[in-house]
Amino acid sequence: MKVVIIGGGIAGLTLGISLRNKGWEVVVNERSEGIPGRGHAFLMHSDGLSILKDLRCCSTARLKSKKVDTFSLRRPDGDEIKRLQLNSWQCIKRVDLIGYLYELFSEDDIKEGREFSHFLYENGRAVAAVFMNGEIEYGDLFVGADGGNSRVRELIHGRVKFTPVHVKEIVGVANKRKIVKSPESTFIKYQNKSNGLAFGLIPTSGTEFVWFMQYDPSISDISDSTPEALRSFCYKLLAKFPGEVMSLMESNDFSTSYLWNTRDFDLLPSFHKDNVVLIGDAAHLTLPFTSAGTTNAIVDAKTLAECLDQAINYETAFAQYYTMRAAEVSNHIRLGRELKTLFLNPLHHDEDNIPVPLITSKEAAGKETNEKLIKIQYFTDPICSTCWIIQPLLRKLKLEYDNYIDVEYRMGGLLPSWENYNKGIIKQPSDAAKHWEEVSMSHEMPLDGDVWLEDPLTSSYPPSIAFKAAQMQDTDKAILFLRRIKEMVFLEKKNIIKWRFLEKAALNAGLDSARLLRDIQGKAPGLFKDDLALAEELRVTVFPTLFFSNCSDKKFILKGYQPYQKYEEIISELIPNAKKEEINTDPKNLFAHFTTMTDKEFAFLSNVSKEDANKTLSELYASGHIDKYESKNGVIWINKFPH
Predict the structure, then answer these.
(1) How would you label 51-62 residue by residue, b for 16+ Cβ within 10 Å and e otherwise?
(2) Rounded CA Rg of the chain
(3) Best CA proximity match to 311, nearest among 638, 622, 626, 1
(4) Reduced to 3 states, what is the DSSP secondary structure of residue 530?
(5) CA atoms within 13 A on the CB side of 174
(6) What are the start-end ranges of the H helices in 264-412?
(7) If 0-12 CB within 10 Å is exposed, 13-18 middle and 19+ buried, where does residue 259 land?
(8) Beta-carbon neighbour count of residue 405 at 10 Å?
(9) What 8-state DSSP symbol labels residue 288?
(10) HSE value, Cβ hemisphere, 13 Å, CA-based, for 75
(11) Structure pTM?
C-alpha cells in the first residue's frame, strides 16, 4: 500500500520515516526546494525527543539540541517572580531538525517543488494528488501534513473558523556572545505586569539563542514587516526592558527576523475523510503559549504510523488515531487559550499562579482526583531522625494502600532553638550527633551526625516554614521537597536553614523557588504557627505522630517508631474489606515511583534481605541504570532509568 504525504515539514517527514521503517511505500511531497529554512527554533519535551531518536534505526545521524534546565520569569525591571527547574526540555533549531529528518529519509523519496492543488477521485475515494506544476502522484492513502493553512484540510472539511489574532510575535536568532548575563541553559522571559507585552530568550547552542517578542496588537501594531520597520517597532515597545534586551536589539540581524500572527481553531470532528487524513498543524492548530505544536506533530506521526501498521484496515486506523489524539489536542487548545487570556489581562491574575508556558502531555491531561476513605494527619519535622527511619514504611504504605489513604503533612516544631532545649538525652548539638549515629546503626538507615559538629542547625523552624511554603504551591511536590531536604541534612551534612540549600531542593522538586522565597517571607510562617497550635491542641509531644480517621467515629494514633503491621492493622480496622495492591518489585518500576532509595528502602519494598538488595543495586549501578551518593553511614541510590 502506497502512502502519499503532502507536506515535507516535521510532521510529514516524521510520518514518512516511521512508515518506511515499518516497510511501507511512502512518497513525501514538499512545495519548497531544498531544506525548508523558515522558522527559527522551538522547545521540545522528551516525549517528542524520544520518538525522534527511535526513528534512527541503523543510522548514525545525530540531532543537535540544547538542554534548557531552568525557567525564569521576570518583570521588565529585572525582578524575578518565578524560577523553576525544567526536566527533559531541549531547544532545537528547526533547520537542524529538518536536516536530521532529511538524513533519515532518502532524498529520492522527497519530491520537491510540489505545491498541492487538488485530488483526483474514483468511486468517491482519492486516487491521486495533483500539484500546481502539473505533476501527479498516485497512491492508496493520502496524508495532509501541509500546515496551519492546509489546502488538504480545506478540501475534506471545508474552511475552518480561525480565532482572531489577539497576540503577535516577532522572532529572531542572535549571537549569544554579544549578550551579557544570559545563562547558557535558562529560558528567560520578561513579562509586563500591566499589559500584554513579553520578551523571551532561549539558548539554541553555546553561542546563540532564539528570541521572541509577544505583544497585544491593540496596544500598538505594525503593518510593514521590513527589517527596518521591525527594528524600530521592537525598539519602541521594549524601551523600558533591561539593558541585555536592548543590546540584543542593537546586534540582531532583522533581515532574518519575522512577524507571526498567532491563531488557532476548534478541534475538528475528525481528522480524516475516506482515505485522506490530517496530521500536525493541518489537523489541529494551537497557540504558541504551550510550546506544544512541534511535539504534537511528532506524536501525531508516531500514533498514526502505529495505528496504520496494526489495524485491519485504514478506516479503523484513522478512527483509532483520532480517539488516541483528540482529547490531548483539545486540552492543548484549551490551555493555549487560557494562557492567551492571562497574557492579555495580567492584572486580573495573581502572579503567584502564572503558569509556565511549557505544557507536557501529562500536564495537559490534569490530575486525577479520587476521594480517599482514610485521612492521616502526620506530624513530623525535617530534622526528626525517627521520621527519617520510617520512610521505608511510609513508602510501602503508599504503594499498597494509596487508593484508601490521604496523608496530610503537618509540621511539629521539634527544635525551636538550643536555648533551654531539653528533650530527653539531647541538650546540645553534640548530643544530637551521637544520637543520630546510634539511630543509624540500630535501624540500618544512613544518617551522618557530623552535621551537628561541623555546621549545626540552630532551629528546625526555618525548613519547616519552607515546607509550608512548598505546600502552598503543590502538596505532592512539597513532599518531594521535604524528602530532598531530609536527604541533604541526614546524608549530605547540609545545614538546611540556609537558603541556597532550600532553593536547590525546591528546584529539584519542581517548585518555583522565587515564589517559595516570597511565601517564606509572607504567609508560610502563619501556616506553620497553625500547625504548631494544632499540635498543641492534639497534645503531640512525640515525632512522628500519625492520626488515622474515616467517616466513622473510629480514630487511631501511632506515636514514634512502630512496625508496619501496626499501620496495616489500623487500616483493616477502619476499612475491613481493604485490599492492598501487589507491589511490582521490578527495580525500574520502584525507581519510577521513588527517584532515590536507600538499601533499607529498596529491600523493604522488594521484600528481600538488605544483602540481596545491595547486590541488585550495585549491579544496576555498574550497568549505569542508577547513580549513588555515599555518606559515612550508607548509600542513597539515584534513578537514571529513562522515563
Answers:
(1) bbeebbeeeeee
(2) 29
(3) 1
(4) helix
(5) 25
(6) 293-310, 314-344, 361-365, 385-389, 391-401
(7) middle
(8) 21
(9) G
(10) 10
(11) 0.81
CATH number at residue 124: 3.50.50.60
Q: How many other CB atoms are found less than 10 A from the CB of residue 250?
A: 9
Cβ distance 477 to 509 under 8 Å? yes
CA 517 to chain centroid: 22
How would residue 205 be classed by pLDDT, with cut points 50, 70 and 90?
Answer: confident
According to DSSP, residue 387 is labeled H
User: Across residues 360-365, what is the average pLDDT?
Assistant: 52
Written as nine digits, the cell of 140 is: 492508496
User: Exposed (0-12), middle (13-18) or buried (19+): which is 463, by Cβ within 10 Å?
Assistant: buried
Beta bridge partners of 374: 405
142 close to 275: Cβ distance less than 8 angstroms: yes
Helix (H) or strand (E) holding 6: strand 2-6
Q: Say how far apart CA 46 and CA 53 lie, in whole Å.
A: 10
- What's the CA gap between 522 and 594, in Å, rounded? 31
**What letter represents residue 2's amino acid?**
K
Q: What is the pLDDT of residues 492-518, one digit of tens each?
A: 999 999 999 999 999 999 999 999 999
Could you identify the residue written with the cell 527576523? 257
What is d(CA 489, CA 415) in angstroms, rounded to the nearest whole number?
Answer: 14
Residue 208 near residue 173 (C-beta atoms within 8 A): yes
More confident residue, 356 or 503: 503
| Per-residue cell: 301 | 506521526
Answer yes or no: do 489 and 554 share one domain: yes
3-state helix, strand, coil in the chain (%, to 5): 40, 20, 35
Indicate if the pLDDT at residue 165 is higher than 90. yes
Does residue 26 belong to any structural domain of this protein?
yes
The C-alpha atoms of residue 612 and residue 630 are separated, in whole angstroms, by 18
Q: Which domain covers residue 342, as residue numbers?
A: 2-64+93-163+264-353
The one-letter amino acid code at 170 reads: I
Per the domain annotation, does 82 fall within a domain? no
Element (H, E) at 596: strand 596-598
Q: Are 61 and 103 in contact (CB under 8 A)?
A: yes
CB-CB contact of 447 with 440 (8 Å)? yes
CATH code (residue 242): 3.30.9.30
Q: Residue 278 has which C-alpha cell?
A: 490530517
Residue 77 half-sphere exposure toward CB, CA atoms < 13 A: 4
Q: Quote the number of domains for the chain.
A: 4
Task: Assess contact for 513 and 506: CB atoms under 8 A.
Answer: yes
Query: Collapsing DSSP states into helix, strand and coil, what is residue 504?
Result: helix
Q: Indicate whether 475 and 531 sit together in one domain.
A: yes
Residue 69 lies in a domain: no
467 phi, psi to nearest 5 deg = -65, -40
Q: Exposure of 108 by Cβ count < 10 A (0-12 exposed, 13-18 middle, 19+ buried)?
A: exposed
208's enclosing H/E stretch is strand 208-215
Q: H-type helices in 86-184, by residue range?
A: 94-104, 151-157
List, for residues 315-343, the tens digit of each pLDDT value.
999 999 999 999 999 999 999 998 999 99
* Alpha-helical regions (H) of 447-523: 451-454, 461-473, 475-490, 499-508, 513-520
Same domain, 407 and 478: yes
> Phi first, then psi: what are they for 539, rounded to 5°?
60, 45
Closest CA to 440 of 627, 612, 600: 600
Question: What are 250's three cell numbers?
Answer: 542593537
